[in-house]
Recover the amino acids of this structure.
């Protein structure tokens, strides 16, 4: 099959490479010409504009977007819609908010265009191991394009699937990332407890390796814990500053809207917020209150 790919960052570029290895024809475009050229050298067809990209695809066209969520995705979809024809399909594989995907699908349907929202997980390991894909939208569009998903997935019969109507693919990815936050936080807390028990002299990399086989907490994330500790046992070259992609926030908001408790996801998100603060005001106030009611000593700022 053939498709166009717009957005050739690390993940988008690796997805193109995997599709090329799978025998698909891929037409590519990116604002960075060097990114396009790198893939042309590996067999992709390069273009210099969205208009050129669509002109080099046969009908019905399929174009996959791997661009930043938000305004960039909105603008790119609007521009794409002007160049596509009835029966063509747009795929958003980025981390878009599922309600935006529902709205975009409805807008494109008015032009007789298909839209699939694909929650894409796999990160920098996707080229080697494949991508996990949760796909929402018209079932007919999914069925027509299934060979593409099978190539990107870890295997033709696993790691991908149609999960529901428009918005469902990105909704499931949102929940996936919320669960990911919780799992990562649990590992972080557990290994911090062991690191603090200095009297045992625990080898955290070795323990991570032991847990990887047979343990009920074994996982790919634990594999990555072992890799990270193997590279820097004391994590001396990493600041305790953790960003969030926005999906955890959406998951937390959804738990409020649906009145479904999600304390682990919410608390793991809050932990990331706290990691970015130096001398947080709330902690200072706690210390001040202890001094006010109990006369407890406080530490003064270092000058």
């Amino acid at each position: 099959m053939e498709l166009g790919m717009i957005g050739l960052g690390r993940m988008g570029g690796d997805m193109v490479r995997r599709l090329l290895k799978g025998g698909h024809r891929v037409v590519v475009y990116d604002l960075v010409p060097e990114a396009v050229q790198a893939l042309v050298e590996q067999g992709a067809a390069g273009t210099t504009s969205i208009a050129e990209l669509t002109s080099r695809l046969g009908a019905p066209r399929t174009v996959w977007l791997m661009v930043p969520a938000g305004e960039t995705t909105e603008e790119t979809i609007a521009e794409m819609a002007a160049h596509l024809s009835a029966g063509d399909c747009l795929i958003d594989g980025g981390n878009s908010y599922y309600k935006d995907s529902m709205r975009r699908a409805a807008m494109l349907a008015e032009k007789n265009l298909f839209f699939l929202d694909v929650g894409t997980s796999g990160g920098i390991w996707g080229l080697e191991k494949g991508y996990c894909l949760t796909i929402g939208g018209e079932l007919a569009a999914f069925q027509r394009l299934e060979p593409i998903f099978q190539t990107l997935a870890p295997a033709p019969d696993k790691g991908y699937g149609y999960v529901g109507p428009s918005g469902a693919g990105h909704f499931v990815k949102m929940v996936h990332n919320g669960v990911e936050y919780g799992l990562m936080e649990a590992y972080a807390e557990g290994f911090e407890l062991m690191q603090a028990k200095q009297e045992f002299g625990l080898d955290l990399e070795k323990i991570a390796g032991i847990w990887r086989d047979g343990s009920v907490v074994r996982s790919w994330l634990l594999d990555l814990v072992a890799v990270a500790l193997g590279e820097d046992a004391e994590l001396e070259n990493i600041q305790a500053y953790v960003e969030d992609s926005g999906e955890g926030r959406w998951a937390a908001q959804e738990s409020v809207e649906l009145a479904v408790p999600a304390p682990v996801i919410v608390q793991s998100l809050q932990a990331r917020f706290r990691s970015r603060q130096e001398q947080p005001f709330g902690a200072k106030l706690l210390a001040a209150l202890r001094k006010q009611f109990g006369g407890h000593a406080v530490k003064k700022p270092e000058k």
Q: What stands out?
A: Strands lie at 2-6, 25-29, 45-46, 62-65, 89-92, 114-121, 132-137, 160-164. The two ends are 65 Å apart (CA to CA).
